[in-house]
UniProtKB/TrEMBL annotation:
Belongs to the ribose 5-phosphate isomerase family. Pathway: Carbohydrate degradation; pentose phosphate pathway; D-ribose 5-phosphate from D-ribulose 5-phosphate (non-oxidative stage): step 1/1. Keywords: Isomerase. Homodimer. It comes from the Bacteria. SUPFAM superfamilies: D-ribose-5-phosphate isomerase (RpiA), lid domain, NagB/RpiA/CoA transferase-like. Pfam families: Rib_5-P_isom_A. This is Ribose-5-phosphate isomerase A. It catalyses: aldehydo-D-ribose 5-phosphate = D-ribulose 5-phosphate. Catalyzes the reversible conversion of ribose-5-phosphate to ribulose 5-phosphate. Substrate binds at residues 33-36, 89-92, 102-105, 129. Its EC number is 5.3.1.6. The gene is rpiA. GO terms for molecular function: isomerase activity.
């Protein structure tokens, strides 16, 4: 586990704080899930305490909802506000084309829904998340209907993946949507993320993948040299 005062957590906090400054009066804001997104939520709550007024925030997970709600951020949902002004979230891997692997926290489906509903998707991360090719550090999560887990595992194996069902306390991890996650390791990395995403989506029973392609407008990286901002 990363200790609270580690350099990596400091870099995550730098990125989260910088992203909170992008939030403007009257916005509807989508909030991501994970350790970097938690720093964003804390920084945003501080801005609201200082007088920033937003229409509301939509959370990508129950955990983020609980954190934001506890910090008195006004919460809403996609029924009330089907379009978000901005969605801010972390990533597990970011390649030079701003393609992502997400879902280590298990919220990939809701994260992708919010990202696709947003006018602008901003990724926040520490510098360790930048990679030259996706798939070498983190497995690719695939959310699946529980009934179909074994046939899907077989088909993912045929695509070259080493597949493990995600576990929590020695039982299958259940997403907020009551599905399973299959973590797929590709020993050679992912050479063509768009093609792989299409192939996996063609398998019946797959709900969503952790590949985010052509969705990101800006990346904010915290690292040893401070904050770096990259735009498409």
């Amino acid at each position: 586990m990363t200790s609270p005062m580690s350099p990596q957590n400091t870099w995550k906090q730098l990125a989260g704080n910088a992203a909170a400054e992008l939030i403007q009066e009257g916005m509807v804001v989508g909030l991501g899930t994970g350790s970097t997104a938690a720093y964003l939520v804390q920084a945003m709550a501080q801005r609201i305490q200082q007088g920033l007024q937003i229409k509301g925030a939509v959370a990508s997970s129950l955990a983020t909802y609980d954190l934001a709600n506890s910090l008195h951020i006004p919460m809403t949902d996609l029924d009330e506000h089907p379009e978000l002004d901005i969605y801010i979230d972390g990533a597990d891997e970011i390649d030079p084309q701003f393609r992502l692997i997400k879902g280590a926290g298990g919220a990939l489906l809701r994260e992708k829904i919010l990202a696709s509903a947003a006018r602008r998707f901003v990724v926040i991360a520490d510098s360790s998340k930048k990679v030259t090719q996706l798939g070498h550090i983190y497995p690719l999560p695939v959310e699946v209907v529980p009934l179909a887990k074994t046939p899907i595992t077989l088909q993912l194996t045929r695509l070259g993946a080493e597949v493990k069902i995600r576990q929590h306390n020695n039982i299958p991890f259940i997403t907020d949507n009551h599905n399973y996650i299959l973590d797929c390791t590709f020993p050679q990395g992912i050479s063509d993320p768009a093609q792989l995403d299409a192939q996996i989506h063609s398998i019946v029973g797959v709900v969503e993948t952790g590949l985010f392609i052509n969705m990101v407008s800006q990346v904010i990286i915290g690292g040893p040299e401070g904050v770096q901002i990259f735009s498409r």
